[in-house]
Design brief:
Strand content: 15-25%
Strand order of the largest sheet: 3-2-1-4-5-6-11-9-10
CATH class: Alpha Beta
Number of strands: 11
Largest sheet: 9 strands, mixed
Structural class: alpha/beta
Distance between the termini: 23 Å
CATH superfamily: Ribonucleoside hydrolase-like
Bound molecules: beta-D-ribofuranose, calcium ion
CATH topology: Inosine-uridine Nucleoside N-ribohydrolase, Chain A
Length: about 300
Amino acid sequence: MTRRRLIIDCDPGTDDAIALWLAFASPEVEVALVTVAGGNAGLESTLRNARAVVALAGQSVPVVAGADRPLLGTFQAEVKVHGTDGLAGVRLPEGLPACPGQAADAIRDLLRAAAPASVTLVGIAAATNLALALATEPALADRVDEIVLMTGALGEGNWTPGAEFNAAMDPEALAILLATGRPTTLATLDLTAQALVTPARAAALRARGGGHCLTACCDIMDAVPPSRRLGHLGHALHDPCAVAWIVAPDLFTTRAVAVQVECGTGPGRGRTHIDRWGRSGAAASARLLETIDANGFFALLGDRMAALR
Ligand code: BDR
Ligand code: CA
């Protein structure tokens, strides 16, 4: 099996941590680089968390710090879901130091040394780091086989009424990625709402036993509050859906769509306009993940997490 090489750009972040562990536990992929942005918490916390998540899984992949704020506008953290520490109060042992340098430089260095269409960019934070890398050396986009993003919403947002958090935090960066012309796949809030962590699913996962990562994963699931938006039935496991698409695409149904992101300063800032029916007349520019087999997804997560240390 050829393993796909991933760059994961993240802001851990409770669900980012689980997405990283799912990737580390999946033989279909090799995580070549982890880059970190401020987002769910400030950059100091998200970087500390990324280092700890990598170390808990016994990995030595380079972790590089990136943007502590969006291209434009001001930084805001998502403390209601992820707490002020970014991991909803779940303490992990300290990881190894971060690699020196800047995320965008590290992304460009890795892409420069790669063959055409041989690296997958996985964006599970505001798109700032990935956009900075590709905007400053656009020719490197040809090294990318796919850009997989947890971002956007067809329906209601989770940050503003119309906008999802990652898209709302840096809509200009998202617009830069959408304009690269590389195959782009979107896991939106409408998709991730189907990957609902219910008390029963969290308990079933914990009952599998397993190592430090599975225990920490379950502690995180128990610590995240149920979502008001989702009727308090549980919380959506957003970012792992992006990784699951790469390692188990059969779990999904998809549709080609045209996408635009609002970059104005009004109340619609960060809103993604996703045209499922060709109403805009614009050519399809992305693949929308429409449905996920939720039971299959949690079975995959359990199998993979149970194999981690
Ligand atoms: C996205 O925003 C963050 O809070 C999560 O980590 C996820 O990437 C969901 O809107
Ligand atoms: Ca995230």
